[in-house]
Amino acid sequence: MEIxxxxxxxxYKRLSPYAAKSAEAVRDRIEEPCDMxxxxxxxRDRILHSKAFxxxxxxxxxxxxxxxxxxxxxxxxxxxxxxxxxxxxxSLCLNEDLAEAIALGHDLGHTPFGHAGExxxxxxxxxxxxHSEQSVRVVELLEKKGQxxxxxxxxxxxxxxxxxxxxxxxxxxxxxRITDKIAYINHDIDDAIRGQILTxxxxxxxxxxxxxxxxxxxxxxxxxxxxxxxxDQPKIGMSEEIETAMKGLRQFMSEHIYxxxxxxxxxxxxxxxxxxxxxxxxxxxxxxxxxxxxFITQNEQDKEKIVCDYxxxxxxxxSIAVFKSIFVPKSWKL
Length: 334
Prior knowledge:
Structural class: mainly alpha
């Protein structure tokens, strides 16, 4: 079958000259190409079928233990980033498969309880902790019992550099770097309104007059702005007006949502719990699951790093259950 080769040829004919081409993708470990899927399509599928991806559905986005079924989780955030990313990549004739793979993998290394968990591990671990680097560690080492997913360098580069300080080498990676912000700014506002933390009227007019006065309008304006300012350009970006307003809106959200006592009422407990789990496993590495102990005993991985790997991989509920099993006394029965 020549399906893959036909798709690779199609990319050279139809995609922008600035697009990454699947036929030029590079893996650290050489493997036989798929007869149907391109390299970036295989990466996307490997991420979707990974254990770390499935766990995202039970990890906090912003609101810890919210009462309601419609608040975002780390998984729904990831899917929204992927949807916006595909739209922009298709509009710019860039490699949609590569962009989607990066988007789906960008938060695989995120901790339980969102950025609260990340800040704790970064504080207690001597080598620090950054979720973007952890996401790369997940796909390079932790998945498939130490084998990793053997993703292409282009996908791993996009995952590693999706944060504000990152500099992705591909335009597809640059898209994710922006769409991550577009997604969380809008869905965090939506969740905050649903949680009665703020109303649309609370958002300063100096931002709504530029970006729109609803989540739908803001998404439309931001996405169109990225496409219009990046068309036939060697980089992805926004207009100065929209980018400045978006940064201002992010600052407003930091003050009124991310530091809001109602949204963060349980955060202190979560931080304390993760801290206790970290020190417990540092003192008792023999209590780690076997697959993690093997990393220390046979793969000569640093103990502190493996403890962080285990805790970062936990879902919110699992971390609570583990904490209870270690620190909360069980009732005695005859």
